[in-house]
Amino acid sequence: MVSGNLFHYRKNSWPPEEYINRTTLQLLDFDSAAPPEQALRRKLNSHASILKEFSITFTEALKMKAPIDPFTRESCKPSASQGVPLGGMGSGSISRGFRGEFRHFQILPGTCETSPMMANQFSIFISREGGNKKFASVLSPGRHEGLGKSSDHGISSWGWNLNGQHSTYHALFPRAWTIYDGEPDPELKISCRQISPFIPHNYRESSLPTAVFVYTLVNTGKDRAKNSIGGISHLSGDHVNEPFMTAKDNPPVTYAIAACETQNVTVSVLPCFGLNEGSCITAKDMWGKMVQDGHFDRENFSKGPSMPSSPGDTHCAAVSASTWVEPHGKCTVAFSVSWSSPKVKFCKGKSYHRRYTKYYGTSEMAAKDLVHDSLTKYMLWEEEIEKWQNPILKDDRLPEWYKFTLFNELYFLVAGGTVWIEKPKTEARVVHRSAVTVKEATINGYDTSVDVDPIESNELASRKSPDDLRCRQVSISGGCRIHNVVYVHDVHFSRVFCASRAVPQNRAQYSATAKAVLFEDTRKVKFLAEGNWGIRKVKGAVPHDLGTHDPWHEMNAYNIHDTSRWKDLNPKFVLQVYRDFAATGDFSSGADVWPSVCAAIEYMDQFDRDNDGLIENDGFPDQTYDAWTVHGISAYCGSLWLAALQAGAAMAVQLGDEAFAEKCKGKLVKAKAVFEEKLWNGSYFNYDSGSSSNSKSIQADQLAGQWYMAASGLPDLFDDHKIRRAPENL
Fold first, then answer.
1. CA neighbor of 546 nearest in space, from 508, 596, 496
2. How would you label 481-490 residue by residue, b for 16+ Cβ within 10 Å and e otherwise?
3. Domain Glycosyl-hydrolase family 116 N-terminal: where (predicted)?
4. Rounded to 5 degrees, what angle do the CA atoms 336, 341, 344 make?
5. Could you give the CA distance from residue 281 to residue 675 in angstroms, rounded to a whole number?
6. What is the CB neighbour count within 10 angstroms for residue 504?
7. How many helices (H) and strands (E) does the chain have?
8. Which 8-state DSSP code applies to residue 585?
9. For the residues 606-618, what does the mean pLDDT come to?
10. Cα angle 90, 451, 522; round to 5
């Protein structure tokens, strides 16, 4: 193993004076209201960088059909505006930008409302005792595009006057803080703390579609201040608003907003108001009521449901929490937002229930119970989150950038379109679809279409009943313009380490992949880049993804290249399996996936055409960098193959398969010598062994296999000099 300090850049990248006043932090230093120093930070008045876009020709666009749609444009330009998403894993998610806007609603599979919904806002209304000073402001800076004139009856009439110059956003997944340092009231310090139930090792709470917003108010003035904070939400068409807002869609989605009433905090609601002038109560009326009274009428609680809206109309609801804060006093107000979409339905008609329904049932109205439970449990959630994060945050050996990156990159487990379902046990079978035969293998008597519950899999060693195998967790990629592709294997390879720290028993993803290795789908598919035809899924090949229209049964939605000929997918699968077992120390359950590991390694023999133990690339983009042509031996795929052989041998020894261990070791010895001879140029490993203009290029991923060896506790693939020398040339 390479020894020495992994980190050489130790300087803090965020000087404190650049983001928040130290006195303000001290005033908020109670009840977790002050953000950790290690959180990512941004000023609220900073503007998100608009990301550059590239264009393609019409001819190119015609060739790029599903899963990439070049004609469909996002409704808003892509930008670095995201913040920490709301909710737990697999229940749909809502993102919240660093400036306070709610956006990227990914509740239903295959759909994502990317544009901010500007009617969804927190606002504050402040009046000082004696009535000399009043402030009313949406807690999001600046006037946004499309708001119209302030004289309108819609949200344009609200107070969009927050500057944001003295306010900052702090992100440390799964929490975020927004500090309003004297805005809009110069004598009031406000902390808004956003909490989602992503809790390592607690798989029940981590499946819940809910988030809590805790407002901490510190009055630095001499007069008593009355503060009313309002949470406002809206949906369009065919829904009924009650104090808990309900939406009907296909499949149904219900939203709920609530605030916690205490001895010092009074809660009131406005069950329904509209954004148009013809509404009975308009957005302008709502704002005026809050400016004047600081609360809604208590009688609203007993009014019952409002009239259903018409398609195209927008109905809104608001919840207000009011409190007095004494001079130099403090107060806390908590809100909760929840949603319930119990059913997941995919394009080919299959439906599943999300995992949280195991605890809250399948009614859409579960959102009401979720907001209640969130407001009573969030402090316990925070305790567990802090126990998890503090050992890293307080480790002086680690640089600041590493700490916030380590946690914030976990956002994808929530906001990547993750689906976590509760699936009943089915029988192992051979499925006949017209003239196509889809073969599903059976491992140890368990149906390959059912995955181990990642939460309860640690108990399965003593409970091997098939009825215990009920749940599966998958991820739907939201990147690369690939529409709703479930669990992109080659990308997951890079992010698995962070995820494994939080959910070490989460084996559902590679478990599903293991079963897919022994699965064959002979339906014909045309591969767009080369124009050739092949079968959708070859037995022995690791799939690129687990499907989109019919996940787990119709794999490889990606059809640009024939991924059965890719050279990195099979090694990556072997490495992920080994890394997981090495991390958990539970090699006993490795027997369940061992047939697939062996099949994945043996499948690669066909690409070793000169019997030197090393695989060769085929002169097309046959790996995850699917626009880069590779010829002969490559640094990227070759190093992954060497690592897979070493991991396969180590796992074989652990499982008592000495014959396979010796086979892998023999290949490794031959292959490693050839790899170094043909690619090492004295400074780094060449891109490939071909004769193209790119062959001597430097690829950042040239040591991908070595990286996995170091992370998995296996011996180095190369000597220390080469490992250290290669990155210096990047």
1. 508
2. ebbbbbbbbb
3. 83-381
4. 145
5. 73
6. 18
7. 15, 30
8. -
9. 96
10. 105
What's the CA gap between 500 and 502, in Å, rounded? 5
What's the predicted TM-score (pTM) here?
0.80
Nearest in space to 104 (alpha carbons), one of 416, 393, 333, 392: 416
pLDDT tens digits, one per residue of 29-60 = 888 999 998 898 888 888 765 555 556 565 55
DSSP state of 676: H
Residue 472 is predicted with a pLDDT of 30
Sheet holding 314-325, edge to edge: 134-138, 121-128, 225-236, 314-325, 266-274
Q: Are residues 286 and 318 in contact, defined by beta-carbon separation less than 8 angstroms? A: yes
- For residue 433, pLDDT over 50 is answered with no
Whole-number Cα distances in Å, 547 to 34, 98, 110, 156, 356: 43, 33, 12, 43, 23
Q: Cα torsion for 675, 644, 484, 245, to the nearest 10°?
A: -130
Query: Residue 325 phi/psi, 5° resolution?
Result: -120, 120
Q: What is the pLDDT of residue 312?
A: 59
pLDDT for the residue 326: 94
Q: Which amino acid is at 325?
A: V
Longest Cα pair distance anywhere in the chain, in angstroms? Answer: 90
Q: Count CB neighbours of 253 within 10 A.
A: 23
Exposure letters 5-21 (e unless 16+ CB within 10 A, then b): eeeeeeeeebeeeebbb
Amino acid at 673: A
46 vs 99: CA distance, rounded Å: 9
Q: Residue 140 to residues 58, 97, 179, 719: CA-CA distances in angstroms?
A: 40, 10, 12, 54
- For 117-166, the pLDDT digits (tens) are 888 999 999 998 876 789 999 999 876 655 656 557 788 889 998 999 89
600, containing H or E segment:
helix 594-603
d(CA 506, CA 500): 7
Is it the case that residue 185 has pLDDT exceeding 90?
A: yes
> Quick one: tokens of 516?
């897919």
Phi-psi domain of 698 (left: phi exceeds 0; alpha: psi -120 through 50; beta: other): beta
Quote the pLDDT of residue 417: 74
Quick check: helix, strand or coil at residue 39?
coil
Strands 351-354 and 343-345: antiparallel
Q: What is the mean pLDDT of the chain?
A: 80
Place of tokens 């609220």: 44
pLDDT, tens digit, 9 for 90 and up, residues 80-107: 678 999 999 988 889 898 999 898 888 8
- Please name the residue that has the structure tokens 């998100």: 48
Whose tokens are 């407001």? That residue is: 375
Q: Which residues of 322-354 are buried (b: 16+ CB within 10 A; e: fewer)?
A: bbbbeeeebbbbbbbbbbbbbbbebeeeeebbb
Token pair, residue 515, equals 């079963």
CA distance 725 to 685: 10
Query: Average pLDDT in the 256-274 region?
Result: 91
Q: In 3-state terms, what secondary structure has residue 486?
A: strand
**In contact, 242 and 303? CB cutoff 8 Å:** no
Cα–Cα dist 426/592, whole Å: 18
